[in-house]
Amino acid sequence: MKTIKKITHLRLFLPIFSMLLVMAVNIIFDIVNGNAVFNFFTISVRNGILYGRIIDILNRGSEAAILAIGMTLVVSSSAGTDISVGSVMSLSGGVCCMLLAGFGNANVSEYAHPLWMGLLAGLVVACACGVFNGFLVSYLNIQPMVATLILFSAGRAIGLLLCNSTIVYIREPSFQFLGGYCGFMPTPILVAGCCVIIASLILKFTALGMYVQSVGINKNAARIAGYQSRRIIFTTFVICGLCAGIAGLVATSRIYSADTNNIGLTLELDAILAVALGGNSLGGGKFRLSGSIIGAYTIQAITTTLYALGISSAQAPVFKAVIVILIVTIQAPAFKAMLAKRAAARSLAAHKEVIGT
Amino acid sequence: MNRTSLEKRSRRQMNNNGMLLLITIALFIVMYVAGCLVYSDKGFDHFQTFINILINNSGLICVACGMTAVMLTGGIDISVGALIAMDCMFLAVGIETRGVPAPYLMAEVLLIGVVFGFVQGFCVGYLDIQPFIVTMAGMFFARGMTAMISTQQVTIKSSEFFVGLANLKIWMPFEIGAYMNNKGKLMVPYLRLPVIIALVVLIAVFLLLRYTKFGRSLYAVGGNQQSAALMGLDVKKTRLKAYMLSSFLCSIGGICYCLNTMAGTTTQATGLEMDAISSAVIGGTLLTGGVGNVFGSFFGVLINGTISSLVKTNGKLMSSWANVVSAMLLCFFIVLQAVFAKLKERSKR
């Protein structure tokens, strides 16, 4: 009993448990369908490229994982969420494609500007969006969700204007590298891996993580203790913008076009969900980056599993909604208090019985 | 502290909040008059154009009223767009494939709204989960349920009652705003049923917020939860009721929306929640709660409607300009609110 309690109280219990649950569902599904039992885990090499459901999940989940890094920091420091990341993704992709193709061209096979310029411009614009959000939140004290609402509705529209309301195709092989394959490995996995490693190194070897947590736990106390709360919140929003930019470039490169209407659509919700699923409190404060990353891949695994079970992409949100509500209810302080009360009452009753006999 | 300074301060606060509303109304009038002057050759100055803005946004007006009530408590409800899509799909499939009578379905839609709001309100009020997360889950759920009901576009045409309601034209009495068209025929402006519903909802919610105990407690809870609780108000129940009201009004809005579109699709009303929130914010409802007015939200809806109508009348501009301009306005009003809040804080010291 004690060991069970110890395990369930681990911080990473929730994400790992749900990951295992998804895998179990997959195995059962394979058995029922008469496939090999570990079909889910098999990885094969075909045409010099890695294949397998795990690889697919890792590949498709990379954008959400990259976004989850920034989102974790924002949630932790400001106790709010950045809902503009999906729009910023689409905007950075749009800017990049617009520069590479030249304004007004919808279908090009050679660059108008060098590739690095397009990628850099995409990242710079995404950072600028982060700066805008961060300024509104930290210096004007606007609620994060509302401040980011502006770019949520404007980002995609600006991207559309820049792309002249069309889908800009860039049929140049080097542009497809970021979303394609690097040798036998899908590049998005490598990009996401690099981002995660860099972020965790920064958190490990600088005091940024501690600053963010202390600001998230109590902004005013942190300020009195000598931290520049505003600047720290500002920084987290800029990092979140940068992450959105990287994710946007990967998503754009994957389809070698700037489909401004659809890139990153509802991905902000996946990112927020990843943070919640990772066992991080949405009320700010302490965070675990690894939890969010596992959370992001778990969500992708859930989505892939649902597709495998024959549920259409339009119907999948129902299950996501149920999962969100379950997770946040378990995390809710009111629910925890109720459970604690019940446990206390039970132990009291047990105690009375012992005394009675 | 003497009495005069107290009075002075309260007057200044009133001015700040009233000023936001005044700016909104002035902005609407300026924008509309400018539109009339610039596009008079394209018929923008006809009374019917104004009514068309109302007709197109009648669902949004209902939703914005509910959103204002929720935002008064300091919360937010982003499930409304998806709920409207679910309502429309429910009506469309119920009428077309099941053959259920329309009035019965409409009552059921309202019931669904109340139940949906109850679940969300329970999670927010009693379990104390962040409103944004709860209603995000609600949005996912409603959007997914829409696809569960049907993934195809269903057009309503078999119910005579429903089609009759949608085609109902209510001519303006005494030929107000009538004009001659180029063929010399007298055109009398007409209203449609959704407009009447939306205006009734608007006035009802205004009276509810201003003169009932529930309405006043919404303001109290949004102003300061702890002091509201100390005053003896049931904070949890008030928040629960606010979300129920929002989803109920959203269902009424869904019926209005369906009367306009006469169809159910999975992608219907995407982004409507953001329109409703931005309308409320433009109308002077504070996001921190406690301050706001449904008439402000009404003008917010009108401003957004005028922008998109102007872009449409121009014909050459891309439709995304409407989004960019309303986002800029939203930004302007949010910053204005923040500046007012800072001024208020400074005057307190």
Can you give a write-up of this model?
The complex is a heterodimer of chains A (357) and B (349). Chain A has 15 helices and seven strands. Chain A has helices at 2-8, 13-32, 53-60, 62-78, 85-101, 115-139, 144-162, 187-205, 208-217, 219-224, 229-254, 267-277, 289-308, 317-331, 333-356; strands spanning 44-46, 49-51, 107-108, 168-170, 181-182, 185-186, 257-258. In chain A, strand 1 and strand 2 (49-51) form a beta hairpin. Chain A starts with a helix and ends with a helix. The mean pLDDT of chain A is 86. Chain B is mostly helical and 349 residues long. The two termini of chain B are 13 Å apart. The longest helix of chain B has 36 residues, at 3-38. In chain B, helix 1 (3-38) packs antiparallel against helix 14 (320-348), helix 8 (193-211) runs antiparallel to helix 11 and helix 12 crosses helix 14. The mean pLDDT of chain B is 86. Chains A and B meet through helix 7, helix 12, helix 14 and helix 15 of A and helix 6, helix 12 and helix 14 of B.
Topology:
The complex is a heterodimer of chains A (357) and B (349).
Chain A: H1 2-8, H2 13-32, E1 44-46, E2 49-51, H3 53-60, H4 62-78, H5 85-101, E3 107-108, H6 115-139, H7 144-162, E4 168-170, E5 181-182, E6 185-186, H8 187-205, H9 208-217, H10 219-224, H11 229-254, E7 257-258, H12 267-277, H13 289-308, H14 317-331, H15 333-356
Parallel strand pairs in A: 3-4
Antiparallel strand pairs in A: 1-2, 4-7, 5-6
Chain B: H1 3-38, H2 47-56, H3 58-72, H4 80-98, H5 102-125, H6 131-149, E1 154-155, H7 160-167, E2 169-171, E3 179-180, E4 186-187, E5 190-192, H8 193-211, H9 213-223, H10 225-230, H11 235-261, E6 263-264, H12 272-282, H13 294-314, H14 320-348
Antiparallel strand pairs in B: 1-6, 2-5, 3-4
Helix pairs in contact in B: 1-13, 1-14, 2-3, 2-13, 3-8, 3-9, 3-11, 3-12, 3-13, 4-5, 4-6, 4-11, 5-6, 5-11, 8-9, 8-11, 9-11, 12-13, 12-14, 13-14
